[in-house]
Each structure stands twice: as structure tokens, then as C-alpha cells.
Amino acid sequence: EAITVQELAQRMAEKGADLVKALFNMGMMVTVNQTIDQDTAELLVEEFGHNLQRVSEADVDIVSTEDVDAEETLEPRPPVVTIMGHVDHGKTSLLDALRGTDVTAGEAGGITQHIGAYQITTKDKQKITFLDTPGHEAFTEMRARGANVTDIVILVVAADDGLMPQTIEAINHTKAAGVPMIVAINKIDKPEANAKKIRERLLEHEIVVEAMSGDVQDVEVSAKTKQGLDTLLEAIANQAELLELKANPDRAAEATVIEAQLDKGKGPLATVLVTRGTLKRGDIFVVGTQSGRVRALLDDKGRQIKEAGPSMPVEVLGLGGVPNAGDQLTVVENEQRAREVSAYRTEKANDKRTTSVPANFENMFSALKSSVIEYPVVVKADVQGSVEAINSALNRLSNDDIKVRVLHSGVGAITESDVTLAAATGAPIIGFNVRPNAKARQQMEKDKVRLMYHDVIYHLTEEITKELIGELGPER
Ligand code: GDP
Question: Which residue has the CA at smallest separation from atom 6 of ligand 1?
Fold first, then answer.
């Protein structure tokens, strides 16, 4: 089912241009005459503070993330941390080293299982959850699917190497997501390590670390000698405290799928991260479009547990099929309800396939309370000189009402990582004398990411200007 922006505006008694602006802020570029799908329409309706009349009632309390838990039900929950950085800078080594600091590791003789995430308890009795699929691609892909599980990003930079292309991608993906960052300057044990140089180079990317009187925590570590790990754990605890992470543990559980697979012996398995409530053995749930009943819960040491609370990663047995990473698991009251919900979700999934709207409407910039419209773009060009010229030309197009925001820019072909970032934010990709590689092209088609290919800067700014005027509408 689709409705044009104009029709929706009339029903809501709002101006069409205001809806277009709101959509724009959600990362969608549409005109008043274009159609949007039901999900998007609902988002808009809520955005404007109108009441929602649903066509199908089956899913109401399932999809509404609006059913917010009352303040007094909230309790502190552990932070969820993702590690990012350039290849070989030590992401995996650091994850292993941090895992080794778990004071409960020795108890009960559990064997380390790789279930996509693990939780440690520090010597200060603080719990921290780490996603052990490091990297910014996985991070942004999850976000693109609406799963914002990461609270804190640790950016690993090897002190003997410096800022490399994937370091910069990681920085930009983290910034676009608005997730706070801690810089871990790794391999500090190496004689050629130069932490000072790293801090200076970070300045060029507007990351001012504490050692340079900024507010981004930076810690020198060695995943090899374990130097600095305690300081890093403290930095995480500090950041978590600032974030005041809380969830209601006493309700039907909701969780996000981190990883899933088909096991020959155990059947479909999924590692989920509980986002709120407590997941218990025997719970009936819907995950994606599948339903199931929790047959067993296993922690990251392979031990059977009875229940899992907020921020706890747990492997779930008893699924009807293999879900996708990023799918939401929702506990429901009975099997009848589970069937209704999964039928409704299947229907919606089918609908989505036929609409032309990007699958993701996440407003990456909702934190920005101002009325300035952000126009996000990803820029790739053949040479550094062009990248710089384009960035400054785009800057000049910004005014009080609209701001062109370059999420990421770099030299070289358009890659999957660029597409993931663009898809998550609804940004077009500007290709200046460069085109997407084969995989990136496929992904662009799938995610409906737009390519603006140009070889003359003037033509590029002309196209963007037209877009900006169109988006602002006649009133501005
Ligand atoms: P990833 O690709 O970012 O996951 O990096 P890895 O964790 O696989 O590490 C890449 C290489 O750097 C491996 O050979 C590690 O042994 C080495 N390495 C990682 N951390 C350190 C460190 O703190 N000091 C030293 N000397 N080597 C390290």
C-alpha cells in the first residue's frame, strides 16, 4: 500500500513541503507527488505527533518502539562495545585480550564459545558486552537494518602504523551514527610506536583526544603485553556512566539478532543481545518473520542459563528457522499471537519488496534539534585534489537552512563500505571520475542507493543545487 506525500499531507492537515522536509531529515529524497510506503507514512504521522490508525491491528505493540518503559522501571545496564579499525591494527587481538580480563572466566570451567558477542566482568564488578564481529561494515549494516545495539565504539589504531583508509572509514561511520568513541592506540610495546603522531593525525579528522585537551578518551594499549587494558576498561566504564545506559529488565524480552546459523545437531541457532526485558527458557517469540519457543539459552562460555537480561548476549535454541543478523526478537504471550505477528511481518516484508522507497528511514541526525536540513553525501574521486575541491565546493552550497554533510570522502572506486554508509543514511554517492566496483554496484541496486557520476565539478554542484532547491520547497 502506498500513498503520495501530498495525500498524506492533506489527511494530516499539514503542508506538503513540511512532510518533504521531514522525510528529507529521515534521509529520504522524495517530492510531494511521489508515493511512500505504509511504514514511512507511519513514521511521518508519528513525527508530526498525530495519532496512528493502523490498517492491521496484529502488530501494534510489537512494532511500536514507542511503547517506552516508565522511568521508574529502568535499571542500569552494561554498555555494548564494538571494536573498529584498519586491518592488522589488532582488533581481534584486543578482543581476545579483553576477554582474558574477565574475572569470572575461571569459574565453572566454561569453554570459550564464539557466539558473536561476549560479556566480561571487570575486577570492579562492572559488566561490559563486546560484539566480537569487529569492523565498521558489520556495524553500519546492523544500523541500516534498524538495529542500533552499539553504545560505544573503540577505534583501534596501531601506533607503529598510523591512520589508514579503514581507520578513516571507521571514524566516519562512527560519526555518522553519532556513537561515542574511545581511541585505543595499540601495539604500544613496539619500539617504533609513536602515539603522539597518531593523536596529531586524529586532529585532522576532528577527533581531539584527552591528551590533546579534547573530550575523546584515548588509551595506549598493547594487546600483546596486556599493557593498558585496565585503563581501557576504565575508559569504557567512564563513557558508559556518561551515557546513563538503562533498560527495564522486568518485562517481556526484546532482543536483536547478532549472528545466526544452522547447526547440524542443534538446528537453527541465533545469538541475540537482549535490549530490554528478560529472556527466559520457555518464552514464545517472533524473530524476523519466524516464530519459536526458547528451548535452551547458552552463554558465551557454552553454559546453560535460565534467563538473560539487558545487554546480555545469549545463544537461543528453539527457533523455527534461521533469522538474519539485525532481526528483532520479540517475546509474545502465546502461540496464537506469535502466528499473527509473524504473518503480519511476512506480509510487510512482501510489501517492502515492491515499493521503491529505501528500506531504511533511520534518522541519523535526529540528535540535531535545529531546523537545519542536512543533506548527506558520500564522496569518492580519482585523486585527492578532486576530493578536496569537491568537499569545499559542497561546503559553499550550505546556508542557514540546509547543510551538505559529507559523511565520508576518499580516493578510489566506490566500495561496499561506501554503499553501506550511504544506504544507512539515505545519502547519494558522488562518484567523480570513479564508479562502483562490481560488488558495490550490486549492493547499490539492492539498497537503492543513488549514484551521481560526474567528471566536471561545476556539473556536480549544479545537480546538488537543484536537489537542495527542490527539497527546501517553494517557501524557503
Ligand atoms: P585485526 O586485523 O585488526 O583483527 O588485527 P589482529 O588482531 O589480527 O592483529 C594483527 C597482527 O598484529 C597480529 O600478528 C598480531 O599478533 C599483531 N598484534 C596485535 N596487537 C599487537 C600488539 O599490541 N603488539 C604487537 N607487537 N603486535 C600486535
Answer: 90
